[in-house]
Amino acid sequence: MINTYKIAPAMTYEVFETKEAAAKKLAAEVAELIRSRAAEGKGVVLGLATGATPLPFYAELIRLHKEEGLSFKNVTTFNLDEYTGLPHDHVESYWYFMHTNLFNHIDIPAENINLPCGTLAPEEIPAHCAAYEQKIKDCGGLDLQILGIGRTGHIGFNEPGSDDTTITRQVHLDDLTKTDAAPAFGGFENVPSTAITMGVATIMGAKKVRLMAWGEKKASIVNKAINGPVTIDVAASYLQNHADAKYFLDTPAAAEL
Ligand code: GLP
Fold first, then answer.
1. Which domains does the chain have, with CATH numbers?
2. Residue nearest to atom 9 of ligand 1 (CA)
């Protein structure tokens, strides 16, 4: 794949003084989408992300539910990814993360929640990935995909080498990604080596993409993703080609732009 530079009039970013302020603005946009669809008697399909980054966003969605009556009854969710080998009750599984940090605190119907399954036998994984892609399509596609970004430039677990034709599949994790996850797992050797993730094409298929990044550790990769070439080496750079992608950044994460 050849690296290309592309003018991207549709990709924007906004810089906020704090991650809480950024998360609040993004949550308000999502709430408006949910409410306007509910008023039409329609549902919303959200793509969701894990990691420390979306925590203030999920906290604000929970506040909107508890204090302002925002209902998630018309919302269907698809998470980006899941580690392989971790059961639901493992504290580092994304299933556990999403239930602890969002789903247990809102009124989303359990049957509307979708995550890749981390505990399948290897031979079951390809069919599971194909079914996950198909279910997204059957639900009408992703209306809005929430993203964080890893220091390898990954979105979901699309590590360097993931091009924009990739769909949901099993992947190997980059050593830098495993290093970043090591403290949570009590050591590098305990971090799963593989995961199931939506592909770059799955994410690019979302009608809107909203990526959050906080802190100086993300400044370098945020700049590469926004201002660098569109390249297979930085999965987030493909968002430059998306019709409606926006970065929500705090000041340190925007420092190199
Ligand atoms: C993991 C997730 C990504 C997430 C990234 C960054 O690799 N699969 O979806 O964006 O971590 O994590 P954090 O938000 O903790 O920096």
1. 3-254 (3.40.50.1360)
2. 156
Q: Which helix (H) or strand (E) holds 45?
A: strand 44-48
In the chain, the percentage of residues whose pLDDT exceeds 90 is: 96
Report the separation in Å between the CA atom of 230 and the middle of ligand 1, taken as the mean of its atom positions. Answer: 20
Q: Tell me which of 231 and 4 has the higher pLDDT.
A: 231
Q: Read off the pLDDT of residues 9-28 as tens digits, 9 standing for 90 and up.
A: 578 999 999 999 999 999 99
91-100 long-range contacts, Cβ below 8 Å, gap at least 24?
A: 92/181, 92/184, 92/185, 93/118, 94/50, 94/118, 97/50, 98/48, 98/50
Q: Give the model's pLDDT for residue 18.
A: 97
Question: What is the whole-number distance in angstroms between the Cα of residue 52 and the centre of ligand 1?
Answer: 7
Q: Is the CB of 226 under 6 A from ligand 1?
A: no
Catalytic residue among 17, 92, 159, 189: 159
- Has 92 been annotated as catalytic? no
CB 143 within 8 A of CB 203: no
pLDDT in tens, 28-51: 999 999 999 999 999 999 999 999
